[in-house]
Amino acid sequence: MGEFVRLFNAREFFEAHDALEEFWQEYGGGDRTFYQGLIQVAVALEHAQRGNQKGARGVLNSARHRLQPYLPHYEGFDLTRLLQQASRCIEEGEEPPYLPDPGADDEEA
Predict the structure, then answer these.
(1) Helices in the chain by DSSP H: which ranges?
(2) 63-79, pLDDT tens digit by residue?
(3) What's the structural domain count of the chain?
(4) Any idea what DSSP says for residue 25?
(5) 109 vs 106: CA distance, rounded Å
(6) Which of 3, 53, 70, 94 could staple 88 via S-S, CB 3.0–4.6 A?
(7) In angstroms, how far is CA 106 from the centroid of its own chain?
(8) Is the per-residue pLDDT at 102 higher than 90?
(9) CATH number for the domain including 33?
(10) Residue 86's domain spans which residues?
């Protein structure tokens, strides 16, 4: 997850997608859709970076559907905020969201 967050925050959305997808494909946990939703947020932002607003909207809608059961927060992520900021990025050209490092709290303790 750390590599996904690092790449996402570096605005390397395609690479972030690849990093988490590799994990997701082998993951057998009941919250697979959570990880799939995060992957889709990265893909949506990649589409937006490339100027494909229609594709970005479609993928972000899929991400919303996948992340809905985990709202508002899950695994250290404010998913409501993430989806709102990603939507504003796509629709209004705002800066893409940043993700917190979910392991940061553990390292400080």
Answers:
(1) 2-9, 13-26, 32-49, 53-67, 79-92, 104-108
(2) 999 999 999 999 999 99
(3) 1
(4) H
(5) 5
(6) 94
(7) 21
(8) no
(9) 1.10.3450.10
(10) 2-108
